[in-house]
Design a protein that fits this description.
With 190 residues, this protein is α+β, with helices and mostly antiparallel strands. A five-stranded mixed β-sheet has the order 2-3-4-5-8, covered by helices on one side. A two-stranded antiparallel sheet has the order 1-9. The protein has a two-stranded antiparallel sheet with strand order 6-7.
Protein backbone atom coordinates (compact mmCIF):
# COMPACT_ATOMS: atom_id res chain seq x y z
CA UNK A 1 0.00 0.00 0.00
CA UNK A 2 1.29 3.41 -0.85
CA UNK A 3 0.65 6.49 1.24
CA UNK A 4 -1.29 8.31 -1.46
CA UNK A 5 -3.79 6.23 -3.40
CA UNK A 6 -6.42 8.00 -5.48
CA UNK A 7 -9.09 5.41 -4.60
CA UNK A 8 -8.11 3.89 -1.27
CA UNK A 9 -10.43 1.53 0.61
CA UNK A 10 -8.50 -0.17 3.40
CA UNK A 11 -10.02 -3.14 5.21
CA UNK A 12 -8.84 -4.75 8.44
CA UNK A 13 -8.90 -8.55 8.26
CA UNK A 14 -9.85 -8.90 11.95
CA UNK A 15 -12.97 -6.73 11.41
CA UNK A 16 -14.31 -8.85 8.54
CA UNK A 17 -16.91 -11.52 9.28
CA UNK A 18 -15.92 -15.18 9.06
CA UNK A 19 -18.38 -15.85 6.23
CA UNK A 20 -18.29 -14.22 2.77
CA UNK A 21 -19.03 -10.51 2.99
CA UNK A 22 -20.41 -8.28 0.20
CA UNK A 23 -19.00 -4.77 -0.23
CA UNK A 24 -19.61 -2.01 -2.74
CA UNK A 25 -16.92 0.58 -3.45
CA UNK A 26 -17.94 3.81 -5.20
CA UNK A 27 -15.46 6.54 -6.13
CA UNK A 28 -16.27 10.11 -5.14
CA UNK A 29 -16.07 12.86 -7.79
CA UNK A 30 -12.72 13.95 -6.29
CA UNK A 31 -11.39 10.39 -6.48
CA UNK A 32 -12.60 10.09 -10.08
CA UNK A 33 -10.75 13.28 -11.01
CA UNK A 34 -7.58 12.02 -9.30
CA UNK A 35 -7.87 8.65 -11.10
CA UNK A 36 -8.28 10.41 -14.46
CA UNK A 37 -5.15 12.47 -13.81
CA UNK A 38 -3.12 9.41 -12.79
CA UNK A 39 -4.34 7.33 -15.74
CA UNK A 40 -3.75 10.15 -18.24
CA UNK A 41 -7.32 10.16 -19.56
CA UNK A 42 -9.66 13.07 -20.20
CA UNK A 43 -12.12 12.20 -17.44
CA UNK A 44 -13.44 9.50 -15.19
CA UNK A 45 -17.13 9.96 -14.53
CA UNK A 46 -17.83 6.92 -12.33
CA UNK A 47 -16.09 3.91 -10.78
CA UNK A 48 -17.92 1.17 -8.91
CA UNK A 49 -16.81 -2.23 -7.66
CA UNK A 50 -19.21 -4.78 -6.22
CA UNK A 51 -17.23 -7.50 -4.46
CA UNK A 52 -17.55 -10.45 -2.15
CA UNK A 53 -14.67 -10.71 0.33
CA UNK A 54 -13.87 -14.12 1.74
CA UNK A 55 -11.28 -14.58 4.50
CA UNK A 56 -9.44 -17.90 4.81
CA UNK A 57 -6.26 -19.48 6.15
CA UNK A 58 -6.70 -17.86 9.55
CA UNK A 59 -6.83 -14.35 8.10
CA UNK A 60 -3.70 -14.77 6.02
CA UNK A 61 -5.66 -14.86 2.76
CA UNK A 62 -8.56 -12.80 1.40
CA UNK A 63 -10.24 -13.51 -1.95
CA UNK A 64 -12.29 -10.73 -3.55
CA UNK A 65 -14.54 -11.53 -6.50
CA UNK A 66 -17.10 -9.41 -8.29
CA UNK A 67 -17.46 -6.75 -11.01
CA UNK A 68 -15.86 -3.44 -11.89
CA UNK A 69 -17.96 -0.90 -13.77
CA UNK A 70 -16.77 2.53 -14.84
CA UNK A 71 -17.53 5.40 -17.20
CA UNK A 72 -14.45 7.12 -18.60
CA UNK A 73 -13.53 9.41 -21.48
CA UNK A 74 -10.26 9.12 -23.38
CA UNK A 75 -8.78 11.02 -26.33
CA UNK A 76 -9.11 9.41 -29.76
CA UNK A 77 -5.73 8.18 -31.03
CA UNK A 78 -6.49 9.63 -34.48
CA UNK A 79 -8.38 12.90 -33.90
CA UNK A 80 -7.78 13.56 -30.17
CA UNK A 81 -11.55 14.09 -29.79
CA UNK A 82 -13.27 12.66 -26.69
CA UNK A 83 -14.17 8.96 -26.79
CA UNK A 84 -16.56 7.79 -24.04
CA UNK A 85 -15.96 4.25 -22.80
CA UNK A 86 -18.01 1.96 -20.58
CA UNK A 87 -16.04 -0.61 -18.61
CA UNK A 88 -17.76 -3.70 -17.23
CA UNK A 89 -15.23 -6.34 -16.17
CA UNK A 90 -15.21 -9.29 -13.79
CA UNK A 91 -12.78 -8.91 -10.89
CA UNK A 92 -10.77 -11.57 -9.11
CA UNK A 93 -8.40 -10.15 -6.51
CA UNK A 94 -6.20 -11.96 -4.05
CA UNK A 95 -4.64 -10.59 -0.89
CA UNK A 96 -2.00 -12.61 1.01
CA UNK A 97 -0.32 -11.88 4.31
CA UNK A 98 2.99 -10.13 3.73
CA UNK A 99 4.79 -13.06 5.39
CA UNK A 100 3.77 -15.17 2.36
CA UNK A 101 5.17 -12.60 -0.08
CA UNK A 102 8.85 -11.76 -0.15
CA UNK A 103 9.60 -8.36 -1.59
CA UNK A 104 12.77 -7.88 -3.57
CA UNK A 105 14.22 -4.67 -4.91
CA UNK A 106 11.87 -4.48 -7.88
CA UNK A 107 9.35 -7.28 -7.58
CA UNK A 108 7.28 -9.43 -5.30
CA UNK A 109 8.29 -13.05 -4.99
CA UNK A 110 5.93 -15.71 -3.69
CA UNK A 111 5.88 -19.44 -3.64
CA UNK A 112 3.90 -21.27 -6.31
CA UNK A 113 2.60 -23.43 -3.46
CA UNK A 114 0.72 -20.38 -2.18
CA UNK A 115 -1.39 -20.12 -5.37
CA UNK A 116 -3.68 -22.47 -7.22
CA UNK A 117 -3.61 -22.53 -11.03
CA UNK A 118 -5.23 -19.46 -12.54
CA UNK A 119 -5.19 -17.34 -9.38
CA UNK A 120 -4.35 -13.65 -9.69
CA UNK A 121 -1.04 -12.24 -8.52
CA UNK A 122 -1.54 -11.29 -4.88
CA UNK A 123 -1.48 -7.91 -3.21
CA UNK A 124 -0.09 -7.85 0.33
CA UNK A 125 -1.96 -7.80 3.62
CA UNK A 126 0.27 -5.51 5.69
CA UNK A 127 -0.10 -5.63 9.48
CA UNK A 128 -3.60 -7.06 9.06
CA UNK A 129 -4.79 -4.40 6.54
CA UNK A 130 -5.24 -4.48 2.77
CA UNK A 131 -6.32 -1.85 0.22
CA UNK A 132 -9.07 -3.11 -2.06
CA UNK A 133 -9.52 0.32 -3.68
CA UNK A 134 -5.90 0.46 -4.82
CA UNK A 135 -6.24 -3.00 -6.40
CA UNK A 136 -9.49 -1.94 -8.11
CA UNK A 137 -7.83 1.18 -9.55
CA UNK A 138 -5.04 -1.04 -10.98
CA UNK A 139 -7.71 -3.21 -12.61
CA UNK A 140 -9.34 -0.09 -14.04
CA UNK A 141 -6.02 0.95 -15.60
CA UNK A 142 -5.68 -2.48 -17.22
CA UNK A 143 -9.27 -2.43 -18.49
CA UNK A 144 -8.87 0.84 -20.43
CA UNK A 145 -8.82 0.60 -24.21
CA UNK A 146 -5.15 1.18 -25.11
CA UNK A 147 -6.11 2.68 -28.49
CA UNK A 148 -9.43 4.51 -28.10
CA UNK A 149 -10.81 5.54 -31.47
CA UNK A 150 -13.98 7.31 -32.54
CA UNK A 151 -16.04 5.16 -34.91
CA UNK A 152 -15.93 7.88 -37.60
CA UNK A 153 -12.20 8.58 -37.24
CA UNK A 154 -10.26 7.97 -40.43
CA UNK A 155 -6.52 7.77 -40.45
CA UNK A 156 -5.13 9.38 -43.60
CA UNK A 157 -1.65 8.15 -44.34
CA UNK A 158 0.78 10.91 -45.33
CA UNK A 159 1.08 11.41 -49.06
CA UNK A 160 3.98 9.52 -50.55
CA UNK A 161 6.83 11.71 -51.64
CA UNK A 162 7.67 11.48 -55.33
CA UNK A 163 10.55 9.18 -56.13
CA UNK A 164 13.52 11.16 -57.37
CA UNK A 165 15.56 9.92 -60.28
CA UNK A 166 19.21 9.35 -59.45
CA UNK A 167 21.30 12.45 -59.88
CA UNK A 168 23.21 12.50 -63.11
CA UNK A 169 26.93 13.07 -63.02
CA UNK A 170 27.49 16.24 -65.07
CA UNK A 171 30.94 15.03 -66.16
CA UNK A 172 29.83 11.60 -67.39
CA UNK A 173 29.80 12.61 -71.07
CA UNK A 174 33.24 14.20 -70.76
CA UNK A 175 34.67 10.99 -69.36
CA UNK A 176 33.74 9.20 -72.56
CA UNK A 177 35.63 11.77 -74.63
CA UNK A 178 38.63 11.85 -72.35
CA UNK A 179 39.53 8.23 -72.06
CA UNK A 180 37.38 6.49 -74.50
CA UNK A 181 35.99 4.35 -71.72
CA UNK A 182 32.35 3.48 -71.74
CA UNK A 183 30.38 4.95 -68.83
CA UNK A 184 26.73 5.17 -68.06
CA UNK A 185 24.91 8.43 -67.43
CA UNK A 186 26.02 8.42 -63.79
CA UNK A 187 29.72 8.26 -64.74
CA UNK A 188 30.18 4.63 -63.78
CA UNK A 189 32.37 2.46 -66.04
CA UNK A 190 30.51 -0.27 -67.88
Amino acid sequence: MTAKEEFSRVFQVRKLPKEAHAVTLVATPEECAALAARLGILSCEAVRAELTLEVSDGGRRVDARGRLTAQVTQACVVTLEPVPETIDEPLALLFLDESLIETGADEMVFSDDDLDDGEPIPDPIVRGAFDVGAAVSECLALALDPYPRRPDAVFAAPAAEPVEEPKRNPFASLEVLRGGRDTDTDGNET
